[in-house]
Write a structure and sequence with these properties.
Elements lengths: L6 E6 L6 H8 L6 E3 L3 E2 L14 E2 L2 H9 L3 E7 L2 E6 H9 L3 E5 L2 H11 L3 E7 L3 H11 L4 H15 L7 E4 L3 H15 L5 H12 L2
Parallel strand pairs: 1-7, 1-8, 2-7, 3-4, 8-9
Antiparallel strand pairs: 3-6, 5-6
Helix pairs in contact: 1-7, 5-6
The structure holds guanosine-5'-diphosphate, adenosine-5'-diphosphate and guanosine-5'-monophosphate.
């Protein structure tokens, strides 16, 4: 599907676990990367910029994008649609970049099916459900009703931690950021299956 010179880092975890905060912390220390900007039908939050945090679209546009085969994967999360567009990801991979996805557990399954041999996945959790609630309330981007929905979802998402290569419990932000930085650096060393095969073949022919 793509020329695979680059590698993929998937980050998932409950809403409010600290994915965005952690990415911002490590951004300057992990070399050349591309952060995949998803398309979503969710309402834009205060402080979010269209085209920076997400491409915000309505349901009709999203459905048209599905028909046009625009997405590498898409899913419905907390009642909103989210999707990863193929084109910029392909471009970034062909340039050998580390491509970072902040996607939900369904997205991780899809990416692993399509790009598993170049993917490293990390599940990020808060230290407790009560701390998660506190963070979502103090972030003040979501209504009480939305927060309740996200907390309920958190319990279900955490059940799928075993599908990931690494787990980071985001208690102390500095410690969690240092661990994520090391994982991101190591993710670049992942060797795709075709390169391993040609390496082995070369040795067979000596
Ligand atoms: P946050 O979790 O509070 O940052 O809230 P968001 O609205 O930014 O994200 C909601 C959920 O959708 C999270 O679980 C994201 O990881 C997930 N998500 C965001 N973009 C994508 C995407 O392109 N594909 C998939 N599958 N999930 C996404
Ligand atoms: P996500 O992107 O996973 O939804 P955010 O990065 O938006 O999560 O973090 C949710 C809220 O929790 C933000 O207000 C953020 O400042 C705060 N936060 C993140 N990590 C920590 C931490 N280790 N300790 C305390 N607060 C945190
Ligand atoms: P939020 O609405 O809080 O920004 O995101 C809610 C959830 O949607 C998060 O868990 C986030 O990782 C996930 N999400 C965001 N974009 C995508 C996407 O393109 N695909 C999938 N599958 N999930 C996404």
């Amino acid at each position: 599907m793509v020329e695979k010179n680059g590698v993929v880092l998937v980050l998932s975890g409950p809403s409010g676990a600290g994915k965005s905060s952690l990415i911002n912390r490590i951004a300057d220390d992990i070399g050349d990367y591309y952060f995949s900007i998803s398309t979503t039908t969710r309402e834009i939050r205060d402080g979010e910029v269209d085209g920076v945090h997400y491409h915000f679209v309505d349901k009709e546009e999203f459905e048209q994008d599905i028909k046009d085969d625009y997405f590498l994967e898409y899913a419905t999360v907390h009642g909103n649609h989210y999707g990863t567009s193929i084109k910029p990801v392909k471009e970034a991979l062909s340039k050998g970049k580390l491509v970072i996805f902040d996607i939900d557990v369904q997205g991780n399954t899809a990416i692993n099916n399509r790009l598993g041999d170049i993917t490293t996945s990390v599940f990020i959790t808060p230290p407790s459900l009560s701390e998660l609630r506190r963070r979502l309330v103090s972030r003040s981007t979501d209504s009480d009703e939305v927060i309740d929905k996200r907390l309920k979802m958190a319990k279900r998402e955490i059940q799928r931690t075993s599908e990931y290569d690494f787990l980071i419990i985001n208690d102390d932000l500095d410690v969690a950021a240092e661990v994520l930085k090391q994982i991101a650096i190591t993710a670049r060393l992942k060797i795709p299956t075709d390169r391993i095969n040609s390496f082995v073949q070369k040795w067979e022919n000596i």
